[in-house]
Design brief:
By secondary structure, the chain is mainly α. 58% of the residues lie in helices and 0% in strands. The chain has three helices and no strands. The model has no long low-confidence stretch (mean pLDDT 87). Keywords: Chromosome, Citrullination, Coiled coil, Nucleus, Phosphoprotein, Ribosome biogenesis, rRNA processing.
């Protein structure tokens, strides 16, 4: 009439294979809402405000740098355009031209140009 120790203890209910197939996962015994929430995850209001201010300052600085870079690019573009224009004007000034007064020569050059095209 002596019972073995195994029978007297409450045996855990036998659980089959999980439906998801994730056999390596253990069964959760307590609810997620009962988990302890540490202070580490909560930041104080002053720290949040400090972080916000630093982020705003960083954004403002970034915007300022972007505007400065854009202004420099515009300035460079306008300088290059002015330089190109000046160069073209100088080329035009340096051209040596002579007026052809003989109409026959004008006709010949026109015909030559038309033949090239």
């Amino acid at each position: 009439s002596v019972q073995p120790a195994d029978v007297s203890e409450e045996a855990a209910p036998l659980r089959g294979r999980p439906k998801s197939g994730k056999v390596w996962k253990s069964v959760r015994t307590e609810r997620s809402s009962s988990a302890r929430c540490d202070k580490v995850f909560h930041t104080s209001w002053s720290k949040k405000m400090q972080l916000k201010l630093s982020q705003q300052a960083a954004k403002a600085m970034e915007a300022e740098l972007r505007a400065k870079r854009k202004e420099e690019a515009d300035e460079r573009r306008s300088r290059l355009a002015a330089k190109r224009k000046r160069r073209e004007e100088n080329v035009r000034k340096a051209e040596v031209t002579c007026t052809i007064k003989n109409p026959a020569k004008i006709r010949k050059t026109r015909k030559r140009l038309l033949r090239k095209v």
